[in-house]
Specification:
It contains 20 helices and 14 strands. The chain is globular, with a radius of gyration of 24 Å. With about 650 residues, the chain is an alpha/beta fold. The strands form 2 sheets. Strands 2, 3, 4, 5, 6, 7, 8, 10, 11, 12, 13 and 14 form a 12-stranded mixed sheet that branches. Strands 1-9 form a two-stranded antiparallel ribbon. The two termini are about 20 Å apart. The protein has one domain: Cytosolic phospholipase A2 catalytic domain. It is about 35% helix and about 10% strand. Bound molecules: 2-acetamido-2-deoxy-beta-D-glucopyranose (NAG) (12 copies).
């Protein structure tokens, strides 16, 4: 027994007998569903695992045998896609800039004049941090506000159209759930996802993932059947000859809430995004998820850990350690020294959509491991968990096992996992870089501006103090950055004392800071979770949310993104967003900055001032009137939050 739910389920089964089956096995309904799914196959991220299940499948290799490529450039697929995407951002960007009301500069005319020159057209990235459901919801508020399809986003004070103008949308951990859910569901709007569908568990966070959804034609939760299905799915993978880790189960459970398909779509693959027409036609930004490497026989993840990314075509790393990318569709094949042996078969379906989302958020595994000693958890539960978990750590199975390791015997001299048949990946925030900036600061991507949405729980009461930005900045000064620059950011005290986490703040405005760097990194627009209309500082491990609470946190995220639709303190905020978007481009074309933009930079650029006075307690007051529906989550202690999460799991057992 190497894994948590398995023995628990055995216990549960032993106690209760097998759950009754058949409640939902009406033949007609299933046929109807299958037909629907076939139709959907052509339209969105899809269940294209050849096994039709969660198990990877052995297939014949294509004549152009899959291989690992070196990380010096973008993939050919991304390069080709960018040709279309950069072009398709031009019209939305012109519209967006027009709405932003830069009265003293013809921004739409500027972009339109240079529309054929992609080194002038601003290249925009959005990065959504980790932080569990808090990060999903706060990040969703930003994405909704930036999405011109969402009602209200293009009204006065709005920033709608920024999403349509963007090239990249990166997510990590809880932010990866958001990005993953958007792309698994046909690039739906946040409003569509939030409001869900009759009979669908999509974004129904009121029943925790420990308990399972209300669905399957019966209006009550059936936790036993829910976990039993998940167990069966992961057993399929194990039976096919692959290791399973806690992450497999977590990912499957998450998908029930994030992927709008029967049982959370066990056969959905991440690589299927590449075939979804809206992505393939470059009508959406490019999604990227992030995870960190943990080297063999170590428990430590630090700033010099290798950072991996997952995109629709590839997984791999631009770090000089691995400096290589695998075709994600064929991960699971026995790559060795970069290729699959001539007599070897190929594997597809290892890149399960849920496994990618689970890998980026594997913190939710270790959080279980770390919190067993709390006295509020019934001893009988602790005993059961500890028995399992001691085996787990012995087997080093508390992580996301990517086995076989696609980078086996690849980059032997620098790749710390080159001799290991397993690539061990963990939550993308484990190295403290909790905002997925890494993919977007790579010089080969030439991003001009990153909207960095930070929902980290840094302070005692779960507000961000920019630890994530500092981590990325500090990493940029070390060898593993391989020359990738990042703007300087101040200490946590300065963020709090100067209120840099209570209003948007720009970093890297003055490019003379990069005089000694080999390139100019993107401007960072830092948007920290802060209370406008809701106390959105719920604990990372709070497992369930009533609809009202979910909606008010999403709305708060919208208000952070728009400064309360410009009503909070700055009706010019949309113009300032436009200035941030244009900044690098204007500099490249030696175009002088308008008075409006100069005022914006004076207001929002960090100018190097610090105030490192010790902070006693950081308890921000709401910037606007609290939402009637806001539950007013004030001052939830960090420890209390952690306990609550484990308690959620405990409740699952007790409920049985
Ligand atoms: C996906 O979204 C597009 C609009 O972007 C729509 O035309 C299409 O019907 C949607 N497909 C599905 C399966 O919902
Ligand atoms: C952008 O797209 C338009 C319309 O499809 C096309 O005419 C134009 O050549 C494209 N421009 C570039 C630079 O690819
Ligand atoms: C901003 O606009 C959105 C969409 O119309 C709305 O939901 C939100 O409540 C507005 N915020 C404020 C502070 O009025
Ligand atoms: C731009 O200004 C016009 C006229 O004052 C106003 O109607 C519009 O809502 C403004 N746009 C934004 C995004 O604030
Ligand atoms: C979600 O599922 C429902 C019911 O099957 C369907 O009507 C709806 O179109 C789906 N939504 C998306 C975004 O795929
Ligand atoms: C960096 O990684 C090496 C292993 O490659 C380790 O020995 C060293 O302690 C790490 N340094 C820091 C500062 O974490
Ligand atoms: C980054 O690292 C790789 C692999 O170690 C090396 O080949 C490449 O030249 C480096 N790039 C830069 C910009 O230093
Ligand atoms: C990969 O290698 C393992 C171990 O040698 C073997 O069991 C498995 O069958 C191989 N898979 C394929 C698809 O060749
Ligand atoms: C890496 O090392 C292994 C064993 O030490 C060797 O078999 C393999 O060929 C090496 N890879 C490369 C690319 O040199
Ligand atoms: C900032 O956050 C870190 C955790 O990310 C925490 O250790 C530190 O105490 C915080 N400092 C302040 C002043 O909030
Ligand atoms: C594109 O713009 C850059 C920056 O202004 C300029 O150096 C380059 O010559 C332009 N390329 C073309 C084809 O006009
Ligand atoms: C820099 O910003 C601080 C507030 O963050 C302000 O008090 C100070 O006047 C600014 N200094 C300059 C030179 O603009």
């Amino acid at each position: 027994m190497r894994f948590l739910p398995l023995p628990l389920l055995s216990l549960i089964s032993a106690a209760l007998g097998s759950p009754a089956s058949g409640a939902s096995s009406n033949g007609d309904v299933l046929v109807g569903r299958a037909a629907l799914e076939v139709a959907e196959l052509l339209r969105r991220a899809s269940p294209d695992n050849p096994s039709g299940s969660y198990a990877p499948a052995t297939v014949d290799c294509p004549s152009d045998r899959p291989a690992i490529r070196a990380g010096g450039d973008l993939s050919q697929s991304e390069t080709d896609w960018l040709q279309t995407r950069r072009n398709k951002t031009v019209d939305p960007m012109i519209e967006f800039l027009r709405r932003c009301n830069l009265t003293d500069f013809d921004a739409p005319g500027y972009v339109s004049q240079h529309a054929a020159n992609f080194s002038v057209v601003p290249n925009i990235g959005i990065a959504v941090s980790g932080g569990g459901y808090r990060a999903l919801m706060n990040g969703a508020g930003f994405v909704a506000a930036a999405d011109s399809r969402v009602a209200g986003s293009t009204d006065t004070g709005g920033i709608g159209g920024l999403l349509q103008s963007s090239t990249y949308l990166a997510g990590l951990s809880g932010g990866g759930w958001l990005v993953g859910s958007i792309f698994a569901n046909n690039f739906s709007t946040v409003v569509q996802l939030r409001d869900g569908y009759e009979g669908s568990a999509l974004w129904q966070f009121s029943n925790s993932i420990f308990v399972g959804p209300k669905q399957r034609g019966i209006s009550v939760v059936n936790t036993v059947e829910y976990w039993d299905d998940i167990k069966d799915q992961v057993d399929d993978k194990r039976d096919a000859g692959y290791d399973a880790s806690i992450t497999d189960y977590w990912g499957r459970a998450l998908s029930v809430q994030l992927i709008n398909a029967t049982d959370g779509g066990p056969a959905y693959t991440f690589s299927s995004i590449a075939d979804a027409p809206n992505f393939a036609d470059a009508d959406t930004p490019m999604p990227i998820l992030v995870a960190d490497e943990r080297r063999p026989n170590t428990q430590i993840v630090s700033l010099n850990s290798t950072v991996y990314e997952f995109n629709p075509w590839e997984m791999g790393s631009y770090d000089p350690t691995v400096y290589g990318f695998a075709p994600i569709r064929y991960v699971g094949s026995n790559f060795s020294a970069g290729s699959i042996p001539d007599d070897g078969h190929c594997v597809r379906g290892f890149d399960s959509y849920s496994y990618v989302m689970g890998t980026s958020s594997s913190l939710f595994n270790s959080f279980l491991l770390q919190n067993l000693s709390d006295t509020s958890i019934p001893q009988v539960v602790v005993d059961a968990l500890e028995a399992v978990l001691s085996d787990l750590s012995a087997d080093d199975d508390d992580i996301a096992a990517w086995s076989p390791n696609p980078f086996y015997h690849f980059a032997n001299d620098t790749n710390g996992s080159a001799d290991d048949e397993q690539l061990t990946l963990v939550d993308g925030g484990s190295d403290l870089q909790n905002i997925p900036l890494h993919p977007l600061i790579q010089p080969v991507r030439a991003v001009d501006v990153i909207f960095a949405v930070d929902s980290s729980a840094d302070t005692t009461y779960h507000w961000p103090n920019a630890t994530a930005l500092r981590a990325t900045y500090e990493r940029s000064l070390t060898d593993i950055a391989n020359g990738t620059a990042f703007p300087r950011v101040p200490d946590a005290e300065t963020f709090i004392n100067l209120g840099l986490n209570e209003k948007p703040t720009f970093f890297g405005c003055d490019t003379s800071e990069f005089a000694n760097a080999s390139h100019i990194p993107p401007l960072i627009v830092y948007l920290a979770n802060t209370p406008y209309t809701a106390f959105s500082n719920v604990s990372t491990f709070t497992p369930s949310y009533e609809d009202d609470e979910r909606n008010s946190i999403i709305k708060n995220g919208w208000n952070v993104a728009t400064m309360g639709n410009g009503t909070a303190s700055d009706a010019e905020w949309p113009a300032c967003v436009a200035c941030a978007v244009l900044s690098r481009s204007l500099e490249r074309t030696n175009t002088s900055v308008s008075a409006t933009c100069q005022r914006c930079f004076d207001r929002y650029c960090w100018n190097g001032t610090t105030d490192s006075t010790a902070v006693v307690s950081y308890e921000p007051t709401p910037i606007l009137t609290l939402d009637a529906t806001s539950l007013g989550v004030v001052s939830v202690g960090a420890a209390g939050g952690l306990v609550y999460g484990v308690f959620g799991l405990a409740v699952m057992f007790l409920a049985l």
